[in-house]
# Entry
Amino acid sequence: MKIYEFNGFPNPARVRIALKEKGLLDNVEFIQVNVPEGEHRTPEFLKKNPSGAVPVLELEDGTFISESNAITEYLDHLTGETTLTGATAKQRAIISMLNRKVEAGLLEGIGAFFHHATDGLGPVLETYQNKEWGEKQKERALETLRWMETVLEGQDYLAGDKISVADITARAGFLFAGFVGIDIPEDCPNVKAYANRLSDRTDAALAA
# Structure
């Protein structure tokens, strides 16, 4: 398998963590796509993913799979036991719900703040910005952290006592938040402890 990514970006980080959790890091060749220089917009890369985003998984038969959630779904089924996306119908539904809430509220909220309320990736790539929207999305991200505070009361991970794809998305969100200077609020001690647990567990995958 091949993974097209830009190391350090939040969505590629999600896939790296999933690979580590599934014991598959050594089965993958990582190929860097220079997003800041616009390599993701070249015709060659757009053939792999018309959306022009990383990461993209290339299978041995030439199939390309984009979108972090889709890639993680594939990886989770690859080893036979679905440890990240849930084993039962109820588990799958709850994990999917939690993952989407974290993705939309935290990760995408921070992303909108970065792209609209800061310099983002620079004037060449940031062709449209709406600072007011970006600041509003920062508020949404902070609201999501406070919601997570209540979910984490008395448990180590969002879906209970085991790591899931929702936690992987949260870890990427924490990485992105640190990069753009958004701190976990002081009234979220459960989230702070949770972020530290995820950091301890996932840092090896990000450094691979």
Summary: The CA atoms of residues 111 and 176 lie 8 Å apart. Strands lie at 2-5, 29-32, 56-58, 64-66. The mean pLDDT is 96.
